[in-house]
């Protein structure tokens, strides 16, 4: 499929950026308007739910009051009031914590009240002489049900509400059964404090036809707030709930401002997109030229590296053949010299010959170790699945004489199969187990343990011993070539073994490290990838 290159130099950057800005502003401000509406609707719904909850709690209190007033009316209609008014009223108040007092009004006058203590001054009070009380009583008669008046200042000295239920005897109005609820009691029942507000909402309960007769101080800005109003017919009350901290304007404004900032950023990006093709093309040309120079440099370095590798291979050949031959000759001639003239040489001369022969042997060993180190990573054998149990068995056979001599114990469990090169991995175990045997304590039989654990991508091996240990400051140094921690008189070796281990493990894609304590032993850890390719 052919693709066409868009030449942005044909566009006017400022014009395109302006169009992008206008488009982005329109979209973001439409979203801000939607946020305004959705958040306001949500807050309005929350206020409505709060108002309905207050109404339900209020109605629950009034329903209990209605039941109580009907019981009192029943006493009067069956001529039990004189005998049982106090006891029945007491039980009602004990059972209903939201009723403070019960009264009987015969005609216009209060004749009985419970509890009497603290309410003595209401006995004989002509309650219907007051025009406001009379108006509320008339509503109760017209509705023939419990009707509440208030809040107002009770004769007892506190604010409260009074509900009156008409009582009829033989078809004629006898009076009223009255329920008194203090304002404090009522507010506790519906969960509103005396100030009519909390952190979230403000409340107002007032008569529909008389807003001055309200439970709380007037609320300012009622018309502009998030609010809800519901009615309660038992007292012709209007329940008003308003949110104290509506967030719909703030959230919409925040998004609107962010939308404008985004639109500005969006327009700048568009402007740069249209204005930068030439600069980008120039930059690409420069980078292409730099890349070409870098490729030439890499080719030159690769050739140099190839030449260096050939030189190293040539050196390895010389080390394995040309340098070893003179050493063999020196060693042979000195050995023959010692045999032929043994009777004519004194002890000093024999010692010198021994030193020379030993030096030649050690030089040959060092040359072979260098050769082995240089060959790491150049494997003639193909990679194959290797049973590490067989590898360790073979190492133990090779080191069998030393194991028997030191009475050593080699312990290992079920080791895995690895897709790797057999010779180098065998050399790793040979060097690590050999080191553990070499640096064992003379008075303790060596115990060497090989443990393998599995993770998602690697096998982790641990080769531990109970030998002389290594000081922490030498943990890294022991892996460097020709680095020895002991003199040749104490322990033999060239200091190449652990360097070979490190280079081999890293060449196979793993890591090697150690942990050790002096006179307690050493553990060498190394990892090998599961899927070696």
UniProtKB/TrEMBL annotation:
Give EC number(s), comma-separated. 2.7.13.3
Q: Does the keyword Transferase apply?
A: yes
Question: Cross-referenced PROSITE patterns, in alphabetical order?
Answer: CHASE, HIS_KIN
Q: Which Gene3D superfamilies match?
A: 1.10.287.130, CHASE domain (3.30.450.350), Histidine kinase-like ATPase, C-terminal domain (3.30.565.10)
Cite the InterPro entries for this sequence: CHASE_dom, CHASE_sf, HATPase_C_sf, HATPase_dom, His_kinase_dom, HisK_dim/P_dom, HisK_dim/P_sf, Sensor_kinase/Photoreceptor
What UniProt keywords are attached to this protein's entry?
Kinase, Membrane, Phosphoprotein, Transferase, Transmembrane, Transmembrane helix
The protein's predominant localisation is: membrane
Q: Name one GO molecular function term.
A: phosphorelay sensor kinase activity
Lineage of the organism: Bacteria, Pseudomonadati, Bacteroidota, Flavobacteriia, Flavobacteriales
* GO cellular component terms attached to this protein's record: membrane
Note the CDD domains from the entry.
Answer: HisKA (cd00082)
Where are the bilayer-spanning segments?
A: 16-36, 252-274
Q: Where is the CHASE domain?
A: 110-190
Which cell locations does it reside in? Membrane
Domain Histidine kinase span(s) in chain numbering: 318-532
Presence of keyword Phosphoprotein: yes
Give the catalysed reaction(s), semicolon-separated.
Answer: ATP + protein L-histidine = ADP + protein N-phospho-L-histidine
Domain of life the protein comes from: Bacteria
The protein depicted here goes by the name histidine kinase
